[in-house]
Each structure stands twice: as structure tokens, then as C-alpha cells.
Inverse folding.
């Protein structure tokens, strides 16, 4: 079996990466940065997001696992103290797999230009650098609302505990093949109206965001990466056909991770 380890880059994470690398090679596993069967991230959820994007072109062949060197993470849910145990489990192979849904985002240009396509593990968010975001929101091809406000966040179930949660969205269990749309400070008065509540959509319901003005530029963030775009016709969002595969070596139920992260890590 081939593995790779991505460290956050701080001293603690680098030391743990070094130890894990050594142990795994002692078990005759092969270090392969290009085509790993297992990608291990050491750091936080941010480091895990990086590992995901590094191997997003080979999700059918690479499984993921995260060790946290700071606070407990949603993706990085193994403690450094547990790595000996973890390595014995990895060496035993084959491992059990748990799959979580992803978001498929397509940005269509208004005039000639490139269509861009992204996969998100947490979310895509759309904001503006100059003033209010004004976009028509279509669901399954039908006009739903004209949104005016700071922006919109489209999140996956596993991303629902991240930015989505800060925007008042619901926490969605990742066994649900769904995605969620939350508003950022929408303008609501007698003239302008948006739904106001977060929306949770099933797998085949496509949502399209259509900016009213094509010359406007928008800041689109996919997980931890932000870029500026203008000349956008449509941002198309749906649940992806692809899934992320986690290597599962022990039970750590989602609701327990939610409890331990947000309520208390005591019992
Ligand atoms: P960051 O600024 O370090 O991330 C903000 C926090 O979100 C960090 O504590 C991060 O954990 C945590 N986080 C990431 N994914 C999570 C998840 N699925 N569930 C719960 N918490 C999660 O930047 P980053 O580490 O590159 O992460 C990018 C993510 O930050 C974005 O995808 C977005 O969801 C989130 N974000 C949150 C807010 C907000 O809450 N107001 C605003 C912008 C972005 P670690 O410390 O372990 O990395
Ligand atoms: Mn981070």
C-alpha cells in the first residue's frame, strides 16, 4: 500500500509527520506523494482541505485520514497520542471506507471565456468586492428569488459545521445526499425580498446563481481558495457524482464530533 502525508508545516505537525512516515515504512508501506492509496493530513481541518484538493483528481483511488495537532477537527479527528494505534490499523489493511457527499460547482462565462468546474468539500461562497451582491436564484430551472445582500454560501453536509454554521445554517448529517444554501445579510424590506431561511436541497435539485450585471466582479471561495471572477453568466451548484472516501479505523460518530467540538469534550 502507498501513502502520503501532508503536514500543516508547523514544528509539531512536521515531527508527527516524520514519526508516522518512519513507522509506516517499518511496516513496509511505501511513501508515494503522487499516487497514494491513503492520504494522511497532519494539522487541522484546513490541512485536510488542502490534502483533499491535492488528490481531488483521484478520489476513487485515494482514501483520506486526518490527524489533528491543534483542536479536534471534523476531518482531522485523530489525536497525535493515537498514532501508534492508528499505524497498526493502517498496516493491517484493507480498511473500511466511509463516503461523504461533495459539491459540484460550474462557473459559466457570460461571453466567450472558459467554463470552470470545481469540487468542494466544505462549501462555495459568493461575495462581492464592490457593493451588494445582486443575483437571481433559480432552483430546478425555475426562478426562486432575486437575492440582494452580502452573499450566499452553498455548503456540503460535512461543511455544514463550518462557515454554514456561522451563517445560521443547520448541521446536516453527511449520510444525507444534500446541500444547503445560506444567506449572508440579505436585504429585506417592502421592495426587496428573499426567503431568509437556509434551504436544504436534495441530490438532483440544481441551483443556479445568475448575477444581474455581467461586468460586476465576485469573490468566489471554494473551501480555502478565493478567486475574483467577472463576466459570470451562471454559477451552477449541485451534489456531485463524486464522493470523498475516508479510511475508517474506529467509530467516531458525526454527532459525537459535533458534541465534542461545540458543546464539550467531557462526557
Ligand atoms: P480557517 O480560517 O482556519 O478556518 C476557520 C475555522 O473553520 C478553523 O477553525 C477550521 O478548523 C474550521 N473548519 C474547517 N472546516 C470545518 C468543518 N468542516 N467543520 C467545522 N470546522 C471547520 O481557514 P481554513 O482552515 O483554510 O478552513 C477553510 C474553511 O473555513 C472554509 O471552508 C470555511 O468553512 C471556514 N470559514 C469559516 C468562517 C466562519 O466560521 N465565520 C468564515 C470563513 C471561512 P482548523 O482550525 O482545524 O483548520
Ligand atoms: Mn485552519
Amino acid at each position: 500500500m502507498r501513502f502520503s502525508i501532508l503536514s500543516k508545516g508547523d514544528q509539531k505537525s512536521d515531527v508527527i509527520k516524520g514519526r508516522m512516515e518512519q513507522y509506516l515504512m517499518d511496516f513496509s508501506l511505501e511513501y508515494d506523494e503522487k499516487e497514494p492509496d491513503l492520504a494522511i493530513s497532519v494539522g487541522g481541518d484546513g490541512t485536510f482541505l488542502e490534502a483533499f484538493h491535492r488528490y481531488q483528481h483521484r478520489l476513487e483511488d485515494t482514501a483520506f485520514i486526518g490527524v489533528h495537532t491543534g483542536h479536534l477537527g471534523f476531518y482531522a479527528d485523530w489525536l497525535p497520542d493515537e498514532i501508534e494505534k492508528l499505524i497498526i490499523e493502517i498496516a493491517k489493511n484493507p480498511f473500511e471506507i466511509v463516503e461523504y457527499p461533495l459539491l459540484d460547482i460550474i462557473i459559466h462565462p457570460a461571453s466567450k471565456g472558459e467554463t470552470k468546474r470545481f469540487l468542494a468539500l466544505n462549501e462555495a461562497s459568493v461575495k462581492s468586492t464592490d457593493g451588494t451582491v445582486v443575483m437571481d436564484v433559480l432552483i430546478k430551472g425555475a426562478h426562486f428569488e432575486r437575492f440582494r445582500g452580502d452573499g450566499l454560501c452553498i455548503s456540503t453536509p460535512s461543511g455544514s459545521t463550518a462557515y454554514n454554521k456561522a451563517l445560521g445554517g443547520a448541521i446536516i448529517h453527511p449520510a444525507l445526499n444534500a446541500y444547503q444554501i445560506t444567506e449572508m445579510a440579505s436585504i429585506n424590506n417592502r421592495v426587496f425580498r428573499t426567503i431568509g431561511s437556509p434551504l436544504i436541497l436534495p441530490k438532483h435539485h440544481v441551483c443556479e446563481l445568475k448575477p444581474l450585471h455581467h461586468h460586476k466582479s465576485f469573490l468566489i471561495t471554494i473551501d480555502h481558495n478565493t478567486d475574483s471572477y467577472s463576466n459570470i453568466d451562471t454559477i451552477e451548484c449541485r451534489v456531485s457524482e463524486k464522493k470523498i472516501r475516508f479510511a475508517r479505523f474506529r467509530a467516531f460518530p458525526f454527532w459525537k464530533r459535533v458534541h465534542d467540538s461545540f458543546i464539550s469534550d467531557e462526557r
Notes: Residues 44-46, 49, 70, 73-74, 122-123, 158-159, 161-163, 166, 223-224 surround NAP (ligand 1) (CB under 6 Å). The chain has a mean pLDDT of 96. The longest strand covers residues 232-248. Helices lie at 11-26, 45-54, 83-92, 163-166, 254-263.
